[in-house]
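Continuing the series of single-chain predictions for the mutant panel. This is the parent chain; the variants come on the following pages.
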Amino acid sequence: MSENKTVHIKVTRQESPESAPYVEEFKIPYRPNMNIISALMEIRRNPVNSKGEKTSPIQWDMNCLEEVCGACSMVINGKPRQSCTALVDKLEQPIHLEPMRTFPVIRDLMIDRNRMFDSLKKVKAWIPIDGTYDLGPGPRMPEKKRQWAYELSKCMTCGVCLEACPNVNSKSDFIGPAPLSQVRLFNAHPTGEMNKEERLEAIMTDGGLANCGNSQNCVQSCPKGIPLTTSIAALNRDTTIQSFKNFFGSDN
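Parent structure:
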């Protein structure tokens, strides 16, 4: 019966950003339909490792618990994914949990995502408005365009695509697939299109579109199935047109 079963979990831990990582193992009681979050909460409730030693509770990020916020991303058995939708029954044991190494580790499984947020600022991944007063109804987006734009809007800034991308690392300034796809999304918006050239110029600089190696790991790992490589291909076309505009318009 399930009351005699246990779940074997190995966690790569780190006391602080400067300290060395180490692996600690835990065995917890099995319950049907457990996900990784519930397993971590069980360890937090009774922080005793597999050697029977009392230890500090594991630190990790979580919020919505329904794969919407993107906060609980981590590497599970070598694959970056959301821990709230990672079911214990579908994972090979021992289950190895690691932080995403594309981002600086704060402690244990908690990471600093500022790299990704700074990239979103760089490309102005928002719709600017003039003041806070009522501007009335905005321009309508054609239904066909709205449908594919909605797919891009599913991005939850989880960082999984950046972790999967070999070109996003500590030695590279590449902003990664998620911010690039947001450029396409906001450039497609009738109001956001006003800043289209500014966004394209931002990804035509160092760390932008040219740093993509087309490994396509991002589209395979995205939890929301966002067509990231389609966005990158479309942006390649848009930046080429923009570069021609810059060249031929330079004398004006």
